[in-house]
Write a structure and sequence with these properties.
It is built from 14 helices and no strands. Helix 7 crosses helix 14. The radius of gyration is 28 Å and the shape is flat. It has 2 domains: 57 residues; 208 residues, MetI-like (MetI-like fold, Orthogonal Bundle), CATH 1.10.3720.10. It starts with a helix and ends with a helix.
Length: 299
């Protein structure tokens, strides 16, 4: 028995450092996981608290907003603030205009950028990369630099005071969307495209039957980005639209604020209704959005 104990002692002593290392590694991983979750919760609160405060403010009375220190939960919930905010301005008309501009911009962004990205990724032609780099360089051109030439162009075309300046540019492509789609299309095997050409398929057939179905996730990302940009666009409608019947919701909210300088409860009620469509759209396409961004960044 003593001999067996003596023989087991060195093995036990050798196993103890390994056990300690495993425990230390497990503890370190636990701390990393806890730290990451705490950081994510903190960052989530940074984005959630303003939305919660907007909802709470939309349900308060105007007198309660002047109380100091401010109360977090309204003492008297006023659901009629939404009705007052809707009736004070032509909210329905502005909402329909924004919805129309957003839908047309989504279609234009998806179609045009897919065509351009296909030409930069699935078709080999001399100088392709040089032209692509020139297109990407346009990302660094700020909008104020091009605002005056664009306004002069749209004025010569007699598009000012219409919705065309807000929708037609979406059909001309965007450097960022082209870059995003090209990164994904480069992952499609080129041999598959060549095989389709050998079988007699045209470029349009290859695009619609082979490339586009595989790029659904990236196209969803482009559609979501385009929807958010068009829905929240303020400078474009401010410059090109003067007719009140054609104003979008972003401009309408600013007019509402100028009319109700201190009644922020009505302003928050109108803003909340304007934010809801974007939130619902993101929740519906959340999986496609995450998949498209992650897949497009692998290369």
């Amino acid at each position: 028995m003593q001999t067996m104990m003596k023989q087991a002692t060195p093995e036990t002593e050798q196993q103890r450092p390994e056990t300690r290392e495993k425990r230390a590694t497990g503890f370190t991983r636990l701390l990393e996981q806890v730290g990451v979750r705490i950081f994510l919760i903190a960052m989530s609160l940074v984005f959630i608290i303003p939305v919660v405060w907007m909802v709470v403010t939309a349900l308060k009375t105007n007198q309660e907003l002047t109380i100091f220190p401010p109360s977090f939960w309204p003492h008297d919930i006023r659901w009629e603030n939404f009705v007052q905010a809707y009736n004070f301005i032509p909210f329905g008309r502005y909402f329909v205009n924004s919805l129309l501009v957003t839908l047309v911009s989504i279609i234009g962004a998806v179609v045009s950028n897919l065509l351009v990205a296909y030409g930069f990724s699935c078709i080999r032609w001399p100088g392709r990369d040089i032209v692509f780099y020139l297109v990407i360089a346009t990302i660094f051109i700020p909008f104020p630099v091009a605002a005056i030439p664009l306004f002069d162009l749209f004025a010569r075309l007699k598009w000012v005071d219409t919705l065309l300046p807000l929708t037609v540019p979406a059909f001309l492509g965007s450097a960022f969307y082209v870059f995003l789609l090209r990164q994904f299309l480069l992952q499609i095997p080129y041999d598959m495209i060549e095989a389709a050409r050998i079988d007699g398929a045209t470029e349009l057939q290859i695009l619609t039957r082979i490339v586009a179905p595989q790029a659904r996730a990236s196209l969803a990302v482009v559609a979501l980005f385009s929807a958010v940009a068009s829905w929240n666009d303020f400078l474009g409608p401010l410059i090109y639209v003067q007719n009140d019947a054609l104003r979008t919701l972003a401009i309408g909210l600013q007019f509402f604020r100028s009319a109700h300088d201190v009644e922020f409860n009505l302003l928050m009620a109108a803003s909340l209704v304007a934010v809801v469509p974007i939130i619902v759209l993101f929740l519906i396409f959340q999986r496609s959005f995450v998949k498209g961004v992650s897949v497009g960044s692998i290369r």
